Each structure stands twice: as structure tokens, then as C-alpha cells.
Amino acid sequence: MSENTLPEKALAENAKPKDEKFKGRFGVVRTGVNVLLFDEKGRFVMGIRKGSHGANTWGLPGGHIDLRESFEDCAIRELDEETGLAIVNIKFLTVTNDVFEEAGKHYTTNFLVAQAKYKYPSAVVLEPKKCERWEWFTWKEVKKYYEAGQPSNNDKYTKFDGKKLFLPTENLFKTRPDVRPWEKLQPLWPTEKKMESETK
């Protein structure tokens, strides 16, 4: 067997990305966590991304899973690093398959739901190079914005500043239209009726 036909060489050739766009920073599909963090009013927090793929879009807090880190530990760490908020009642929701064509990146995004540990949470921008600001939204607001063909210039969507949703969040509504994240939550406060009315 010649050197050019060694199994190792053949495997290496087959492992190369077929699409030139995917010879960038990551040569493999990566996985991460996004967190729908709800407050006592049934709202969840999103921020305007900066300095990375999906810049200038509304995304959920979260990030890459570290080696040997669980989804839950990743969620706790990322929320603390990005917003300063402590979270509880962390539950797995669903996963999306997200291909960033222009950036040449491919992720699977694990969506978790959680609740703020304390009432009246205030998200702080602790990583200003990665996030412009945090805002609280209801599920109904974001779903209607997505269905309106975001970004929308309609006056009732001014809260979104005409910015698109981050691809994983967009795919959450696109590929998981029946998902109901609030059903995963345990009532920390007597606001179930309020939360249900805000999310439908």
C-alpha cells in the first residue's frame, strides 16, 4: 500500500469540510446553551449582541459549553458572567440546528428555561464587548415580532429597534412553533395566571 492510500490519509481527506466557507475558526459543529430566563411577570431577557456572529441581533443569554460542563452549570455560569443574575428551576426545553452561512459556523443550540432567583431582577451588562444592552420581553411580544417578518417598522414593535432575532431564537419559533417554555416552570410566586396571559 502506497503512502497516498494509507487509511489515515484517506480519513483525513474525508474529514475536510466540503464547503470552503466552513474552514474558518471551527472545523466541527459546536454546541451551546441559550437560556429563557423568566421573571415574576412572565417576561424573559434578551440582549443586543456585539463583537461576534449574529452581531446587532436580539439574542438570549448563553454561550459555549465548557469541557465536562452540564447544560445547567453552563446556564448558571453564563447568566452570572453576562447579567449578574442568579437562576433556579433550570429545565431543558428543546434544541435547534443553526447554520450561520456568512460566518461559516454551525451550532446546535440547547434551549433551557429558568427563573430568576429573586423577584424584580435587573440584568446588568457585564460584558460590554459582547452585549449592548438587556431588555425584558414577553413570549407573545417576541412571537408576534417573528411572525411579522422581523425586523418590522410597525409602531408597536419599536421596542425591538428594527433589529432581527439571533438565528437560534429565530429558529426556535420557525422549527419549534408549538413550544411552550412557561409550562416547564415551577411557580416561585403566585403569578401563574399573569404569566399564562402574557405568553399566549
TrEMBL record:
Keywords: Hydrolase. SUPFAM superfamilies: Nudix. One of its GO terms (biological process) is dGTP catabolic process. Transmembrane segments: none annotated. GO terms for cellular component: cytosol. The keyword Oxidoreductase does not apply. It holds the Pfam family NUDIX. One of its GO terms (molecular function) is 8-oxo-7,8-dihydrodeoxyguanosine triphosphate pyrophosphatase activity. Residues 28-164 form the Nudix hydrolase domain. Belongs to the Nudix hydrolase family. This is NUDIX hydrolase domain-like protein. It comes from Petromyces alliaceus.
